[in-house]
Structures
1.
Amino acid sequence: MKMELIKVTPRGYCKGVVRAISMAKQARLDYPNENIYVLGMLVHNHHVVEALKRIGIIPLDEPHKTRAQLLERIDHGVVIFTAHGVSPQVINTAKAKGLICLDATCPDVLKTQAAVIEHLEKGYEVLYIGKLGHPEAEAICSLSPAVHLIENEADLKALSIEKPLFVTNQTTMSVFDIESLFQTIKAYCPTALFCEEICNATRIRQEAIARLKDIDVLYVVGDRFSNNSNRLAQIAKEHGIPHVYLIDDVFAIHSAQLKEAKRVAVTSGASTPTYVTNQVIDYLEHYEENKKYPVFDLDLLL
Ligand code: SF4
């Protein structure tokens, strides 16, 4: 029997990622003679990072280094702050060094930062539900010692807070996890103020996954560093899809994954290029065992 392919919509690039990539491309045109650096991965997809390198946009990215530490490596040229946001201290340091600063922070991330700053100024302690080591969480947690990163329920038990509480979250978390953690915090502190900040792009991609029925295999096309791609895979597993694969690109598809699969679905994270997802869809649409992989051309990606 022929395999049925379900192309989940919406999928792929969000507005914040489109904006960040077009800012980087424009920077190359505007500053042809300057070194252009990105503080971290411009968006969490290594194909995009490689394609940007080809036009001379240099990522400064080292595991476990903060944005402030990465900034120490440069003292001239253009620096782009990524879609995930950066703290005001880092922006001020970059300006003080005389760097040309371009801020690709997504407006949705800026909105969360503004809400946190507003409540810190009013004297609240902030519980920020996010992922340790993620740049979006790093930027917000570095605002003040009164911001506490919460990854799970266990982190709540370690806290003792006297002041009024403001609770918010990283934009790309699971809507289901956030709902459940908000309920737990409400039981522990009924007077807490809640502000759910899952961005619309994340929400509608996750809801589309939660609605899928009778799927044997789901491919989530996305980078392992992409929080929103990982959350799509997590939600698919939690909603009972038996085989879920987070794949970088078409080359990660193997016959063994598709044995006896009747209904196969494809989605992609908000930082996954359409070109990469389309190759996966095209490969699966004409799938046969031991099918040859297509040619991957990085120059077609930006
Ligand atoms: Fe902005 Fe959401 Fe896209 Fe992140 S996933 S860049 S917050 S729209």
2.
Amino acid sequence: MTDTATELPVLSRKGVPAPAVRIVHLGLGAFHRSHQVWFTAKAHDGAEWGIAAFTGRRPDAALALAPQDGLFTLVQRAADGDRFEVLPTIAEALDGADTARLNELLAAPTTAIVTLTVTEKVYDDDGPDTPLGRLVRGLAVRRAAEAGPIAVVSCDNVAGNGEVACAAVERIAHVLDPELAAWVRENVSFVGTSVDRITPRTTADDVALVAAACGYRDAAPVVAEPFASWILSGEFPAGRPAWEDAGALFVDDIEPFENRKLWLLNGAHSILAYSGQLRGHTTVAEALADPVCRDAMEAFWEEAARHLTLPELDVSGYRAALLERFANPRIAHYLDQIAQDGSLKLRMRAVPVLRAERADGRSGLGAARMIAAWMDFSVNAVEHGAEFHDPLEREVRAALALERRDRTVALLNLVDGALAQDATVVDRVDSLLGTFFRP
Ligand code: CS2
């Protein structure tokens, strides 16, 4: 921070009260702020829907936002310039460990919605101290307070996220108290959603830029592309903001929309993340500009598109828009961020397409190439002691001790057990290893 910046006033509400809390959020990070907070701020009734947002593992975001009254700047970064906007919707920014406040908010009948951005891996973890464990204990308090039904809205890139959240919450509740699980079934509506807005991590340059452009100090601005999409399916028994004012779409059957997003956008991201880093690139835009990576992405798109057949999905329009979004030269979306937790992400991004292609009697080469690139990337990272984040890191390391084909089977097994038993797929993936190494 420059001397001039430290002289600037800190962003604050200047005595204007924060909106009353009606939404609790678990997983306060940049994406929550560029997406759900923005949609709520844009709703015509958004001022009535304050959010109490809790952090996940680390309290950092709460520590940065609390001194600025939950306010922050959203920088919408278009190819031709930045737009700055202060969003007023986060009424409270809280440490995830503050379960007393969480329970208090969940026990209030005015709290109508819990939104989640807890990352893919949390849905598989039934520990009591995870965001979902905390949510379940909070729901027990809500039940005791007779505060009424509530909607839980998953905003993670997980296939069937509404059902997956429901299953995880019911599992954890059942262990705690079978009657609580029954109450959850009657009183908690799990809403499935497909969320989309590219939101790279904030850099020190972004913080300095906001100070210079806006004339105040914001320790935690968020940078995102102008595009945003939210598709939802499910009931809101205690009401919701008019998110459709900001373009949210409410549908009966979310699966085709979810598949379009997970395969075409996230799948492309993963293939660019692994192939791109193997070829020495650091951002999505750089990888896209490399014909080798781009061809791999387009080949995967061709396969995925065969299984996205509803006309309203407008796959060719969607693909054209993605090319433009990925190429945005002013968004530095780092491939290392996307590459994390690959073993889980590929289950949603590569496996369904590979399975669908196999079921139709085709090889699924494009999807297999994504998996092979992940294997090369992982082996390379672990062998060179580079950063490697994956919930199955231990298993990946163990696989490295094996001979080539056994290793391929073991790594494939981490992504999908059935595919690991399909010799044709194993051969195919094995033959694709090394595709992206620089000669
Ligand atoms: C990315 C997503 O990090 C990743 O795995 O694919 O975060 C992606 O940027 C968002 O889903 C875009 O909406």
3.
Amino acid sequence: MAGHNKGGRRMTNIVVLGTQWGDEGKGKIVDALAQEERFRAVVRYQGGNNAGHTVVVGGERYAFHLLPSGILSPSKDCVIGAGVVLNPQVLCEELQQIASRLGQQHARLWISEKAHLVMPWHVLRDRITGGTVGTTGRGIGPAYSDGVARRGIRWADTRYPGRFALRVEEEAMWNRQLIAAMLDHWHIPGEQREQLQLHEALDAATVVAGYWTCIEEIKSNPLVRSGDVSAFLDGLLSQGQALLFEGAQATLLDIAHGTYPFVTSSHPTVGGVYVGTGCRPRELHVLGVAKAYTTRVGAGPFPTELEDEVSERLREVGHEYGTTTGRPRRCGWLDLTVLRYARRVNGLDALALTKLDVLTGIHPLRVATRYCVGGDSVAFFTVHDADVEHAGVVYEECAGWDQDITGVTRFADLPGPARQYVLRIEDEVGVPVTMVGVGPGRSQLIRR
Ligand code: IMP
């Protein structure tokens, strides 16, 4: 019976997705949920190694870019869906890192044969053109572009070495011409061209040799399977198993619904789950993750951004430096208009609020409740990007607190103003806050 367990009880699947501009702490929430027995598989449906999930377990810090956060749980299946772009060299390194710390005591990994590969020329193209958006430079946008242009190389193309070599030869030839034209168009000087190490990235034999070693290593790993992920997930649902979907990046970085063009090239919003896996779970609980303040890396609008001692403090106390690139994140007040928008676009059922402890000692706190353009109150996305600069942000003040909350385990034990802050968010966004993060550790999570 689809979607029911043996006792006939319907199993609820969960998607954990970002509600802001990423780095909300989704990894920690996925890791906490992955401990629950009811979830059999943790599934990534979009993004690539532009993501960075940090999980702290037993004082040890794990940073993943491509692997789903559930990979640390040996009883689980982890899945890389069709909507993910996969760099085999990165995947190979991450599997090696985990194996060196946990041996074969980690989750099984299923890779969709439909997933597109990130090739060295994608990284080159990203490094040449990604500057204005401030991309992570990992080749993500160009890999998705080639997929849409129907010239991508997919994991299925690695089934036979001859087929893979042929596809690499074809694409390397095309990219040599394309990249030469790009370098001329942007007048990239010789010195910079040298830094790009063009030969290494564009010579077919070199690329095949470098990639094939990694591909073989991945495929020979006894914990890795390749195939039809949609059928695999459908099978789990039919057995009444529950799935945990792990979003990367976030709502405002969605290619369709984010702050275009300052976005990533995939669909972190809820629709991405279906496209990126080929599976439609009937019962899907949508859990949005929101940081207790706002951060953003890369360029683009950020109306509640601060450039003062509060933002410095948020950055230092909250360790707001990119997991993938190490870039300092831009920091600002919590924007409730953003959370309301995320609620609408994703149909949020609940919120997990992270990093509440970082706000300790800041007086007063402020939250943005709406914007004003020309005296009129407007919702977030009625603000055209040309207007964002001139939009007035309407703030409300909230009382702060000084007590250390990093050891608090029950909501009732939080200081009054901290509880009020959470309740205010619930009120304004209209969904319950069911989890509150008070520190980076696995146990520093209050459940309500
Ligand atoms: P790309 O995904 O590398 O193409 O970068 C596009 C935009 O998304 C840039 O502003 C990046 O900083 C941002 N971005 C990509 N991945 C993440 C992430 O995991 N966290 C936060 N921002 C991200």
